[in-house]
Amino acid sequence: MPETAVQIPSVREPLDVAQRARWELAAMAGRLRMLEAKLVEERHRGDDLMRERDRERRRADRLRRSESYRIGSGLISLLRNPIEATPRLTRSVLRRLRPARRPAPLALEPGRPSVAVAPRPPVHLYVVIGLEFEAVREFVLTLRQRLLVDPDHRPVVMTDCASFPLLRELGILMEYLPDRTTWERHRPDRSWEDVLSERLSRLYRDHESVRTIIIDRTQPPTLAELLR
Question: Which superkingdom is the protein from (predicted)?
């Protein structure tokens, strides 16, 4: 079952509790939008399956009423009681009903073991908002160390730091969201919280994230805290 948004425990009280609460609400709203989209998709899939079932039923009914079905039933009756038919007719029917020979499966090369595909680890979404470039870089390096210790998931880091392309060489997938000041300067007609919620919903859907961690900008987590 997908987990709800969680946060790294902090030993100090955050300075901007109201703003952090808005971020968490936006994260939950994005998660709800993703779940609603999945529900609609499952309903459409169920309707398609019901239509496919009805088509198969109609096809089966037409087959039962067809002449080929009646002939096949007669041949089965003949096989059940072949003594009443001539031996030649029985052999002919058996040849027609004998299943075609399937080609033998290709044998593996001697000494070559079969390759088992390991399942991909789940995706965890890290929301890193309000940090300067050096702080974001330090967090990404700490996250890399955490994965070296225990590579139990694939991380996706969403940040509002405009210099995020410089961090891609570290091997962590980075996603960008304009910061509040930049967004409100260029798009004052649309709420930044709504953009945050829609962006989170898109990331949940695209990466199939199962966990969300909102990083406290006043005290980013240490390696030990990330390993908890």
Answer: Bacteria
C-alpha–C-alpha distance, residues 165 and 174, integer Å: 8
Read off the pLDDT of residues 177-209 as tens digits, 9 standing for 90 and up: 999 999 999 988 988 888 888 888 888 889 888
Torsion of CA 13, 15, 17, 19, to 10 degrees: -150
CB 205 within 8 A of CB 188: no
5: three-class secondary structure by DSSP: strand
The region that residue 221 occupies, defined by phi over 0 for left and psi between -120 and 50 for alpha, beta otherwise, is beta
Global confidence as pTM: 0.54
Question: Do the beta carbons of residue 162 and residue 130 sit within 8 Å?
Answer: no
Work out the burial of residue 146: count CB atoms within 10 Å of its CB; fewer than 13 is exposed, 13-18 middle, 19 or more buried. buried
Q: Distance (Å, rounded) from C-alpha 184 to C-alpha 194?
A: 12
| Cβ neighbours of residue 211 closer than 8 Å, sequence gap 6 or more | 2, 3, 6, 122, 124, 125, 153
- Phi (first) and psi of residue 171, to 5 degrees: 90, 10
Q: Which residues neighbour 158 within 8 Å (Cβ) at sequence distance 6 or greater?
A: 125, 126, 127, 128, 129, 174, 175, 176, 177, 199, 200, 203
